Amino acid sequence: MISFRYHVVTLVSVFLALAVGIALGGGPLQGEVDDSLVGQIEADRARKATLSDRISALRSDLRYTDAFAEALSPEVVDGSLEGNAVAVVTLPGANDALVPDLTTLVEQAGGSVAATYRLSPALLDPEQRQLVDELGRQLVAGAEDVQVTGDPAAYERMGQIIGRAIGVQGAPEPLDAGAEALQSGLATAELLASAGSTDTRADLVLVVAPPGIAEGTAAAEDDAASFERSGAGEILASLLSGVDEQVDGVVLTGPTSAAVDDGALRSLLADVGAARRVSTVDPVNLTTGKVALVLALAEQAAGGVGHYSAAGGSDGALPAASDATGDLAGDDTSDDTGDGQG
Question: Nearest to residue 228, comparing CAs of 260, 265, 268, 267?
Fold first, then answer.
């Protein structure tokens, strides 16, 4: 058994330790501890102020750069989309507020926005694959003058159907009976919705993606929200490859996070086949990115493809002038590497 004497000794030891601690804290060490804490706090405040100043300077630089690009953009894109019509398609979660600015820049380039559409989440949901497959077969069989090339899998077939419904190869055309039937079927199935008039089939398609999901965030732990782990990225690559079969060009754009984090642009770039057909551009939220995507549309219309990114796209910041104006055959200033970049 523990004796009374043991309890007394233990309590005395505890009180002695407390007394020594108080004596030291209030005595010879107090000044050193206080000075150390004050010095650390002052250093942290200075570091925070420095970082705040740097952030403010970077924001000012960004505002100036964007204003400068906005002032020059009409001259840079002038005539690059002359005679072209663009169908804008927004993916689930994309910023619809970007569409008016994109429309303005397309018009400054001499083109027009034929219509705006919204892709539903169901179309990118792997669990809806059977619906997509069956509906695709029914639409091809039932619509007038609608054909798909080759023997595509479910999502590439659906991409060709969407391409036929909203677009055309060659000069833009009025909506025909086949396109009307396809748009009606897609709307009834709640896979594709139009926003406003859809009187014209466009020769170019611009797809606007949502931001990517950064690693370490709560959303990154959700497989269903992940473009890559959910399978939505693979589906999108197949869909856009199919759309490209039916039109003169497709460009996928979004904020830079969609290219560097778990997002639509990164998923498409991971698909070698799709990346050889569909161009990508970021950041769409800045004027510089908007100018690049207009030139990328012109490059697609001329038969080219490229990937342009603020995060270091494989083809630089924007298409070469010759690519964007249709001079893809090469001349004395073109390179002879065979990669289509002059």
Answer: 267
